[in-house]
Design goal:
Strand content of chain A: 25-35%
Number of helices of chain A: 4
Strand content of chain B: over 45%
Distance between the termini of chain A: 81 Å
Number of strands of chain A: 4
Number of strands of chain B: 5
Structural class of chain B: alpha+beta
Largest sheet of chain A: 4 strands, antiparallel
Helix content of chain A: 25-40%
Number of helices of chain B: 1
Oligomer: heterodimer
Strand order of the largest sheet of chain A: 1-2-3-4
Distance between the termini of chain B: 54 Å
Structural class of chain A: alpha+beta
Helix content of chain B: 25-40%
């Protein structure tokens, strides 16, 4: 079986090319993701309701992250090394390598590279207001999220009650 | 691509009877170095209303939920800072 010798420069170039392609792909995805910054993602198409025109408006929050990596590895081929030793010990036999091969080429006989990447993202949207246009004029009606406000209220209340009770007990009450 | 960008975009003008409505949105774009990710926060800011008589006015889009959340957070923090100071006296 014919053995293939690896040039470290070729492997490195292959790894660089693969990494560059991955980064380019990531860049394209990021550009497409940034398109959510357009005005069309915030205002929906108008809805006609009787003599009124309603335009819903929402807040959009999106996050995205990527990671790519590539690596190469090179080493001596142990089988070939054995052949060298065998070849050196036998007088008159043909040497296993050509005379033109350098010492570095002989030593680095095996190699490989690999790469991988991953990423994730999420987009949140929340209604903020509704723009109503009717015969009486244009108005902006807010959309109030009572659940979120109640959660914030109870969190603040819990913090304040906890703080007050801790202060009343004094700094060394646990001793 | 800049690291941080804050931009305001006008939307398409909508004809509602004799009135023209142009919505505006503001986007905060944060791009991590090396294009490894990013964050986009896009929200409505205002609408420009143009009447057939040539009158123009801007209506702000107020996020009541966000204001209420921030107010409650502020009250909690103020209480956390002021209560120990008052209690010490």
């Amino acid at each position: 079986m014919k053995e293939t010798s690896f040039n470290p420069a070729d492997i490195s170039a292959m790894a660089d090319k693969s990494s560059a392609a991955a980064v380019e792909s990531v860049g394209r995805t990021l550009e497409r993701f940034l398109e959510i910054a357009s005005v069309n993602s915030v205002y929906d198409s108008p809805v006609k309701h009787g003599d009124k025109l309603i335009i819903p408006a929402a807040e959009v929050l999106g996050g995205l992250g990527f990671g790519v990596g590539a690596g190469i590895g090179m080493g001596e081929n142990p089988n070939k090394k054995d052949k060298i030793e065998e070849g050196e010990g036998t007088a008159g036999e043909e040497k296993p390598f050509e005379a033109s091969e350098s010492e570095a080429d002989r030593k680095i006989e095996t190699g490989g590279g690999g790469g991988g990447g991953g990423g994730g993202g999420r987009v949140f949207a929340r209604p903020v207001a509704v723009i109503i246009s009717g015969p009486e004029g244009v108005s902006v009606e807010p959309v109030v999220d009572v659940t979120k406000i109640a959660l914030a209220f109870f969190t603040a209340l819990g913090f304040m009650v906890g703080m007050a009770s801790r202060m009343r007990r004094g700094p060394h009450s646990h001793e | 691509m800049p690291f941080l960008a804050i931009e305001t975009f006008p939307g398409e003008t909508i004809q509602a009877g004799k009135t023209k409505i142009t919505p505006f949105s503001q986007a905060v774009k944060l791009v991590l170095p090396g294009s490894r990710g990013g964050l986009v926060w896009n929200r409505p800011v205002s609408v420009l209303v143009q009447g057939d008589d040539g009158s123009e006015y801007v209506l702000p889009v107020v996020d009541v939920t966000r204001i209420a959340q921030l107010a409650l957070l502020g009250i909690g923090l103020a209480f956390g800072i002021l209560f120990p100071l008052i209690n010490r006296r």
